[in-house]
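Priority: medium. Attachment 1 of 2:
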């Protein structure tokens, strides 16, 4: 029974990490209907930034979030402004294929640039949080994973509150429903898209800082987390911020229990099977709301 609860705890905490990565993609898809295929590689970039920052300055991983998060926010703003906005504004369809192809190209460039700069060897850093855990009734709770889970809850609540209550958040939702009408009502679609993408990138910066005591990073990290992020967003509901949290927890639990009962390989097969089943039975995801 103790092993069962240990697997449950590990799955929940790992799911929180996945949710940190996926919530930004869910936000950008929800308000812009744009899928960023480079999400995993952008996380890889944030992880490299966090690890090298911690190695170079010796700061705490949680402090690194205050640096990497804003830097990623600025990068996201300018990527949307100069690279993606021209494609979105020019396109007639709601979900332009050109954006998907452009972000796929961005993913290719980032992964190969990382290989060129850092080789294929993995990079890691030892921090005050590395290997730390809390022992309760013979069960071990990873301290960095617990922090990541709490932050994932805070991110989800904060972004959802921003979208529901803040003036800029309501403007983002209005633009997602009908960008032409929103523009006629005086909303600056170009600026709003930049804001949404910047918030999504900042979430990756936060995730990179939180993951630095837990994961080593290599150029292949992007591919690994890219597929998981896609799976999480589809499971929870494309465009649903709470759905990203739910999807992350589902994937984390399946991997934990699948690895405990079978093996890590079979766990990934089960995740893919659930992904396909949800697509078949509920294509819009578990918490998705139909959009016009």
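Attachment 2 of 2:
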């Amino acid at each position: 029974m103790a092993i069962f609860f240990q697997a449950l705890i590990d799955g929940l905490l790992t799911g929180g990490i996945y949710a940190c990565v996926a919530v930004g993609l869910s936000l950008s898809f929800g308000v812009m209907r744009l899928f960023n295929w480079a999400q995993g590689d952008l996380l890889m970039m944030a992880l490299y930034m966090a690890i090298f920052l911690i190695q170079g300055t010796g700061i705490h991983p949680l402090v690194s979030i205050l640096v990497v998060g804003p830097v990623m926010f600025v990068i996201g703003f300018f990527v949307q402004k100069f690279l993606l906005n021209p494609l979105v504004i020019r396109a007639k369809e709601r979900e332009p294929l050109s954006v998907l192809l452009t972000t796929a190209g961005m993913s290719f460039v980032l992964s190969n640039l990382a290989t060129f700069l850092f080789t294929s060897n993995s990079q890691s850093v030892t921090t005050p949080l590395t290997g730390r855990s809390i022992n309760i009734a013979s069960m071990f709770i990873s301290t960095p994973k617990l922090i990541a889970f709490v932050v994932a809850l805070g991110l989800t609540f904060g972004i959802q509150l921003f979208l529901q209550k803040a003036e800029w958040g309501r403007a983002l939702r209005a633009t997602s429903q009908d960008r032409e009408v929103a523009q006629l009502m005086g909303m600056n679609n170009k600026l709003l898209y930049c804001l949404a993408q910047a918030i999504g990138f900042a979430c990756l910066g936060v995730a990179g800082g939180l993951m630095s005591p837990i994961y080593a990073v290599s150029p292949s990290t992007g591919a690994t987390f890219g597929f998981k992020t896609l799976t999480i967003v589809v499971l929870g509901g494309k465009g649903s911020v709470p759905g990203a949290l739910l999807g992350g927890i589902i994937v984390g639990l399946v991997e934990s229990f699948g690895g405990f009962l079978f093996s890590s390989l079979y766990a990934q097969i089960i995740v893919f099977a659930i992904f396909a089943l949800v697509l078949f039975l509920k294509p819009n995801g578990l918490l998705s709301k139909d959009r016009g």
